[in-house]
Sequence to fold (402 residues):
Amino acid sequence: MEWIGLNVISSLLQTWFITELLDIKKNMSWFYRITMVIMNVGIVTVYGLTDIFDIPLSYVFIVLNIILACIFTYNKISEIVFVVILESIYSLTMNIMLLFINKLFLLEFNDYYAKFFYFILALFFLKKLKAMRLSLHQMNYYILIVVLFGLYCIISLFTQEYLAFNFDTPELIKMFGILLLCLLGVFILLLYLFDLNNKKEEYEKLKQQQENEQTLLHIYDQLKMTKHDLKHDYQLIDYYLNQKDYIKIKELINNHSNLISSIPVLVKTNNQLIDAIINNKIINADMKHIKVECLINVPQQFHIQDYILNDLLSNILDNAIENCPENGLIKVNIIYEQQILHIQVENDIDQLFDQTLKTKKDRKYHGYGLKSIRRIVNQYHGNLDIDYSDKTFIIQISLLAE
Fold:
């Protein structure tokens, strides 16, 4: 019955590896892990009962884990497939390494050593993957999935051939060398795609800076026009004073009050990134004749990555502006209190709000949607509440930003 204990350990390790890279739905963490362990133990037990390396059965393992992850996580299907196949390749590689060491050095390491090496190397591997952030373009994920699946098929066939024919040492070294080259190629591809993704983020930052410059230019033009109008109106006021026509002066002052109130009020907080995001959206709203009221109290820095904060606020505010009618109102409250960032955005609506939180323009590529917002909230162990009526839509978010 020793193989049963080994199967349980294998399932626990596989579950740990996969769940470390996925964003599990709130209050589903332990239920998902337990379900996954039970399912994996069942699959691996079938391996033990058949006493063969059955390739179709390994594909069943991949498919079932993908289905399970689709139910219990916020991740896109491309991310899930990538992670599950990556774990399968990693697990197979550890087993092949053990076979190679035993054959080459005439040792007798059992499968428990393979699981030990699996765990130790996975600690380093997962740390590196998390540092690179699994946030690639869909097409890049598809490329990786095709490459990884092809590599998985090659490794599976190699393992099956070895178990069936028991290669001599020179042949084993040759096959292992080819395998290492394949793994190295995949690793280089991973680094390249993640580097490409980082460059894209830098481009988005530059694009944000350009939008901020456009915001300042818009404000400058408005102030320049106001200054020009005031210069001529002062001359008119002087004329009315000489004529003692105080009614005309009062009318002119009222007109100026309306002119000044039409200029959008920009925010100035301790956090430059939030200033840039909010002010840019204020200008965008002003162009649609939408008023934005802000109450913001945040420190200069807190532990939420810039690109995540930008994605979160931009997505929420873009949709608020998109769904707010002309001459409507948007209220933005952002408060940092006791290491928790509270965000509340309320906007007027003239129709039932799209619950998917996707802008009408360019939905496919730029609409992050409610699913992505929930992923960010889950990543920072936060809460998300949505409420809407016939006239208003309110989204409230709390993020742990310690």
